[in-house]
Autoinducer 2 import system permease protein LsrC (Cryobacterium breve), 348 residues
Amino acid sequence: MTTAPTRPPGTAEHTVSAVPSRLGALLRLRELPVTVALIALVTITTVVNPLFLSPQGVKDLLLNATIVIILAAGQALVIITRNVDLSVGSVLGLVAFGTGTLFVTVPGIPIVVVFLVGMLLGALLGAINGLLVTVAKVPALVITLGTLYIYRGLNNAWAGGTQYFAGDRPDAFGALSVDTVLGFPLITLIAIVVVVIVAVYLAGTRAGRDLYAIGSDPDAAKLFGIPVSRRVFLAFLTNGVLAGLAGVLYASRFNSVGATTGSGLELAVVAAAVVGGVAIFGGSGSVVGAAMGALLLTTITSALTALRVDKFWQEAIVGVLILSAIIIDRIASVRTARKLRISEARNV
């Protein structure tokens, strides 16, 4: 009796079997749907309107997405821990108006100092959110809804009817949104650096990986010795820092800042993170996906405007994308839980 020789793992048969598994892993990427949707949207719009991808058109797309990308990166950290921060628009507004105030009241102030002050103010406001959530043990949705109005009220009281315009800032500061490197606006390059740093933190550090564990099951995370309160506080603090950075860049990007700056922006930021594959229930997602979600949502607005589609449909499409992302995430969670139960039953 003879037996068929066993092939070593490095043979062609093993290589062929590895291909479907790699393809399956690619198809399971949470960022894949938003990437495909973005490519399809840009392709269709360019066919209808060839000027959409002109050099100036691409620059405008990147500039429109930059602020939301930075905010979505910070929001992803918070949502992954099974929380949410609705105050980021108000934080941005306070910092943006504060930036204009600094340039007017302190002539000649170095731009680097303005960035540091803006990020420190954002850190303070983010720390307040983090402390209230972790110490008071009140849901973040309630806390940040309250601070949204508090921070907005402070900005209204501070700004009143005052507005600062592009002429009130140094030319070098305004140039951050004008000058480009290899076709990328400088503020967009700052956003890319932010995304890379946060992505490395989430994937390459223990503290970053702890955020996923907390979002998946906070009680289990505590049992494993993870300092849940400290990690959640740092997530809110970092989110505040990035909102402060976005506020300074907002003052560079737009012609005026005032009491209403940033109003309603928090909804777009949460939508970008969710559409980008960050699970609203916590525990999964990536900052790269959140950035892609921000780029998709801002591109939708630009594309539908270029196609002369009514603004109502723009908002309706964003709503459909949010619902689709939540439903898909829920279906994936149910399937994963079912496979886990089947696996455990077989092992028994």
Q: What stands out?
A: The beta strands are 164-165, 180-181, 184-185, 256-257. Residues 31-347 form a domain with the ABC transporter involved in vitamin B12 uptake, BtuC fold (CATH 1.10.3470).
